[in-house]
Amino acid sequence: MDFKNVGGLDAQLDDIARRVLASRANPAAARRLGVSHVRGILLSGPPGCGKTLLARELSRLLGAREPQIVNGPEILDKFIGEAERRVRELFLPAEREYEEVGDASALHLIILDEMDAIARKRGSMSADTTGVRDSVVNQLLAKIDGVKSLPNVLVVGLTNRPELLDPALLRPGRLEVQLRVELPDKRGRRDILAIHTRSMREKNALSEDAIDLLDDLSDRGMGARTEHFSGAELAGLVRSAASFALARAVETGLGAGADGMVAAADLERALKEVRPA
Ligand code: ATP
């Protein structure tokens, strides 16, 4: 399985390949072994470490329809019944397709970002929101494993606060594959930097000294310079270095047609501009 845009997270990717992808890659073997498709996944961890990215890659690898990504807080609504309606609507495209073509339906991923906003432990919220959120949790449970649950849906919940979630959602048959997506370690940082400079390398837009410095930043004992950087911050570092290179190309009047190139000095300036949160 080729998660080519996700750096680090090898153990998590292995888990996903075995527990989520395999049954869909070989349904006949899965049936023989009595392994059913996973219906839900929970990815938790600090911001910017690749939860959304991983969910999107998963969708691509599964050949799913363009995933629906919804933000938990956006679903909440002060009008009674409105939030549940929104949750129900998320499942509609999959329901329609399943009605039409049955098991020939493509897979539909429903990605619930900031899931803790709508799926907190029932009864744990202040009076004004408790009712709404409890019924959203109930609606989600009904959709994930109710009588009319669909085999062509995979729900992916994302959260920074997994401890707030209603435990009923995490039982087997529901969001049963739960993975932590943490800040990258040294190797992860090297992989992430490589991913985000891949196209620059291909286009010959990285100078020799920049390539050396990139290796240093992650590989040769100087990893500390990017320690505590999230994947998003490493991507930001590369973007910042590129912007310095571009500004230089513009300033020196090379302008149109000139090849900008990222040098080590651009990365050094970027390291001053982009700091880990
Ligand atoms: P949040 O909790 O804030 O929603 P998140 O964990 O979902 O954060 P993403 O939105 O997936 O983080 O990450 C933002 C961007 O940072 C990605 O689109 C990607 O460019 C980069 N990025 C983050 N983690 C990784 C990673 N492990 N490998 C490669 N790129 C990454």
From TrEMBL:
AAA+ ATPase domain ranges (all copies):
37-185
User: Does the keyword Transport feature in the UniProt annotation?
Assistant: yes
Going by the UniProt record, its keywords in alphabetical order are: ATP-binding, Cytoplasm, ER-Golgi transport, Hydrolase, Magnesium, Metal-binding, Nucleotide-binding, Protein transport, Transport
The protein's superkingdom reads Eukaryota
Is Glycosyltransferase set as a keyword in this record? no
Output the Gene Ontology cellular-component terms. cytoplasm
Localization annotation: Cytoplasm
Q: Name one GO biological process term.
A: protein transport
This protein's major location comes to cytoplasm
Select a single GO molecular function from the record's annotations and give it: metal ion binding
What's the stated role of this polypeptide? Required for vesicle-mediated transport. Catalyzes the fusion of transport vesicles within the Golgi cisternae. Is also required for transport from the endoplasmic reticulum to the Golgi stack. Seems to function as a fusion protein required for the delivery of cargo proteins to all compartments of the Golgi stack independent of vesicle origin.
Which family does the similarity line name?
A: Belongs to the AAA ATPase family.
Q: Any idea what this protein is called?
A: Vesicle-fusing ATPase
Which species is this record about? Answer: Stephanodiscus triporus
Classification from the root reads: Eukaryota, Sar, Stramenopiles, Ochrophyta, Bacillariophyta
From-to range in the entire protein, with total length: 1 to 277 of 560
